[in-house]
Amino acid sequence: MRFGVLGPVRAWRDGTPLATGSPQQRALLAALLLRGGRTATASELIDALWGEEPPSQALAAVRTYASRLRKVLGPEVLVSESGGYALRTTALDVTTAQDLATEAEKLRTAGDRAGARKRLARALDLWDGEVLASVPGPYAEAQRARLEEWRLGLLETRLDIDLEIGAHAEAVSELTALTAAHPLRERLRELLMLALYRSGRQAEALAVYADTRRLLAEELGVDPAPELSRLQQRILRADAELARPVEEPAPAATAVARPAQLPATVPDFTGRASFVRDLGDRLATAEGHVMAVSALAGIGGVGKTTLAVHVAHAARPHFPDGQLYVDLQGAGARAAAPETVLGSFLRALGTPDSAIPDSLEDRAALYRSTLDGRRVLVLLDNARDAAQIRPLLPGTAGCAALVTSRIRMVDLAGAHLVDLDVMSPEEALQLFTRIVGEERVSAEREAALDVVAACGFLPLAIRIAASRLAARRTWTVSVLAAKLADERRRLDELQAGDLAVKATFELGYGQLEPAQARAFRLLGLADGPDISLAAAAAVLDLPPHDAEDLLEALVDTSLVESAAPGRYRYHDLVRLYARACADRDEQPPTEKEAALSRLLDFYLSTAARVYAIERPGDRLVDHLEPTEYEGLTFTDRHEAQDWLYAEANCLLACVRQSAAGPTTLRRAVDLLWASLDLAESGANSREYEAVATVLREAAGAAGDVRAQGRAANTLAYVHHYQGRFDQAAREAEEVAALAGSVEDRLPMCWALNVMGAVALYQGRHPDGDRHFSHAIDEFRNVGDRAGEASALCNLSRLRLAAGQREDAIRMAQQGAAMYDEMGHSLKGANGRYALGLALTENGQLAAATRQLREALAVFVESRQRLWEGMTLFRLAEVDIAARRYGAAAAGSEKALTVLRGIGGDWRRGNVLTVLGRALDALGQSGRARVCWQEALDIYEELGVAEAAEVRALLTPQAAA
């Protein structure tokens, strides 16, 4: 049997709830439960139930209540002792919460903050509404206050731990709501100030202090506590220690992430003894000294990465807090951006996505702060130059960095430079022997020396040649040596810098079977960081299992790397060599274009199926260019979404690459259009926009009006999502003109939708009404019910802005119903969003909340971050209208977090305005003013009408 008082007074036997009787009977049960098994006399129970004014028959009533409870609970549970009563049970939710809180305190003392947080969260989850709900009597009132105070104390402790482990951005929303509910609780204010400061919102943190000081003076006539005042001063001084979460101690069970990202070292590592010793000694002495940086330089294939990884693995004991690794792709055309790498590193170090800032400078600062006090080794592989890696260096004692690059980093201050040359003849022969086998080499030692000499003692060349020989048991070493002896041009190329790498790759390529060589050439043509097995099969025009056999054979010779199961990638120099081979060897030459055309077909066909499963009833897929090569099929929308986001970088690279081909341009444009989710979700919006710009320019140069209009259509939508409405309008007008001139009707429909949306946002209601009405007609003419529903929902929003509420509700309902008929859950959520707005304006707040919450669930599931953030914002507006100011503030904070980096400044300004209104209603006028000022700065820079509204909000406060 178990009992609960952290909510209604309840009892269960074997999971079945028991009737606990009238309020007074529950009051008696609660009084007995909260005595922890001790006997309560009749007079004590009378005092508990009625206080100083008990009824004349109080004793008889107590006995009656006890008798009834005994029948329900059993005589072995409720016992009579010494003229009183006692409960014989320990299964009480309060006891469980106490045990969990005690465990949490012990874990926190031991340094296990993550464990402590979990225990506290479990304890807090035991509260289920108001404590002792509807239980009368002075004892219940006193216990209700005590247990609520205890709950708040546990909550403050859990939030304190959140800040210690760096979850300050997530804590802001919860603390905002809590300070609204408990405005005089200074500890919550202190935690909110710290969370805001660590989230980069110093002005708001100081405004919280100002609001608190004013409130305490007005309500209690006192000053803030010394702790709060000291925190304010530390924020004013920009105390560096204040900006860092508390460091975790060293126990094994700790919440601090310890990344172990080093690639596997090769089992047959050979030679380089002096380099291994020198680099190992430098890394071993990094602790307690200025950060050690060693930069390895040399030509491609000389073994820089192999040596660095081997040394890093040997040095792992000196860096117990983890090892970070990244391939910076410095030799390629699109080197890794430092801010992208920093984001990946911060996540590996345990920083939540919501706490990672946007700018390179802020990310670098947070990265250095996160590493401070830790001993971490960072391996920066394949760097382009010193400028690329400077933001990635730890900068603190105890850490170290290993850098590999094709160039000598003479401008990297304080770095230990290592120039890596080819192997000595002895080392080269040893490596060759380890791969081929002692027996075969010892029988033909002179031939083996000829082989490694022909390889120029370059490690990658030796490994490729030896691997091929090891795989062909019928070959002798002399056969291989004879093959290499004919490669006279190779020796000349070895003396020409980067050409040496190409000559080395020629050894491996020349030994491939014809099908393997074809695969090597054609797969190297595709841009993108890697390629999936399915995409590779399309390039090669082979069944997936045959393509996999060829790829694994190429992996065995080190010409291709296995990036992950089912994914393959070329080293950047190998890719260049593969393309040179394709230019030289591929017959007929048109096969190169055919291979890339099949890849484009694969992506377009698959993306169209993703679009169709996401948007049933949408006619876009019927207007796309036809494809000859079939793509993938999916069983559900989640599988389809996973594919689209996993292939985003490769897909966009294929679009960019296909822009230059007259036979591929139109399909490339349509592929981008069908992949609009990549822009709408915010996941790849910058690259999407860049590729769309390339396509529009390419179409213009080619004189392809149809492709130019469709490319401009994708740009119009990108600008719309990012809040750049003037640019969106210009692009949409160009789409209408271009598409109209070639009777490409669907892009014209989409353009009308964008023009209507821009007019709505800019307050040009007659223009917007005309555009949306025209869009509805055009969508109907092309039989696109999904598009018609979209335009209807948009027209609903415009009618709402024009004050026509009934029309707005009717149109939104009609649009949502059309989506539902088609089974279009994603766009149906957009319909519910529009309906929620109309219902809000009409004062139907409960119905509006239901619609918006239904939409929010779909947007979250579909990874539509823009719409998720905007729906949270609209729910905050509903909360404002319902005077739920604490919920409105918390919802606005969540919206700001979700919309970070997407949606544009205009939408951020809208959310800040609503957040300010909520905070002002909660009495936090100082922080509200900070939010409004930021919103005003945004609006004034954009030159939009909303600036006047916010200026009016600020003016009375400025006058005061």
Task: Report on the architecture of this protein.
With 960 residues, the chain is mainly alpha-helical. Helices cover 63% and strands 6% of the residues. It contains 45 helices and 14 strands. The strands form four sheets. Strands 8-9-10-7-11 form a five-stranded parallel β-sheet, with helices on both faces. A three-stranded antiparallel β-sheet has the order 1-2-3, with no helix packed on it. Strands 4-6-5 form a three-stranded antiparallel β-sheet. β5 and β6 form a beta hairpin. It is globular and about 115 Å long.
Short description:
By secondary structure, the protein is mostly helical.
Task: For the record, give the distance between the C-alpha atoms at the N and C termini, rounded to a whole number.
Answer: 61 Å
Structural class: mainly alpha
The stretches of 5 or more residues where confidence is low (pLDDT under 50) are 248-255, 487-501
Strand content: 5-15%
Number of strands: 14
Helix fraction bin: 55-70%
Rg for CA atoms = 34 Å
| Strand order within the widest beta sheet | 8-9-10-7-11
* Main beta-sheet annotation: 5 strands, parallel
Shape: globular
Q: What is the number of helices?
A: 45
Q: Please, what is the average pLDDT? A: 86
